[in-house]
Design a protein that fits this description.
Number of strands: 5
Distance between the termini: 36 Å
Largest sheet: 5 strands, mixed
Helix content: 40-55%
Low-confidence stretches: none
Order of helices and strands: HHHHHEEHEHHEHHEH
Oligomer: single chain
Structural class: alpha+beta
Amino acid sequence: MPSAYFSLQLTFAAHYATAADVPFDVAVARCTNLRRRLHLWGESGAEQWAIFLAELGTVSHDQAALLSTTLKFHKARPPLAPAPTFGCFSYDSPNATGVLRIHFMPPEGLAASPLAAAAVDARQHELRAMFQHVRSAHPEARSVMGVSWLYNLRAYTRLFPQAFIESIQPVSGPLHLNGSSTWGQVLDWRQQVKPAVRDELLRRLVDMDVAAPWRVFPLQAQVAMCDVQAFHDLFT
């Protein structure tokens, strides 16, 4: 995954830098999820992230050197702090208004697509385990939100309560490209770059609107949100 995925993101950033007339390091920070992939998110990773960007800046016109530098930092990435996961699912603790955000990231080692029809029961078992935990650990949760390109797929949305499904709509505000809510669509469940999606994204780069670079992706992120009680009713 890293070489092909990182190369695509660096190409995207280079195009954005030229189109938006910004330094390459600015484009990397705005248009890639490399900071998360290098485990440099947050205050603890700020210094190393700045070093990484500075090194990229010295080789910004050499694609091979850019990829080599990125792979070097990926190999040396610090370990992530342990976080609770429930199979393919995880969540962020509720924010100040009680909104709990859910995430989907298949673990390594799966033998088949985690969204296949045969896997529905397994995924709902994971959701049941997660929301049983949420109910006891986070009584302050009031609603559940998801933001992802996956909400375009019936294979994903069928896992959730009807109220959540019915709430799905396009994201109204600017989208960040520093996570997987948009970039995730270029990877398959094995975490390999999908050639067709990669080629379509590269073809669309000529039409990039620098004010909304996420719009060149084949699938746009969608948002879903409903009362947490709908999840408790279904899964606990």
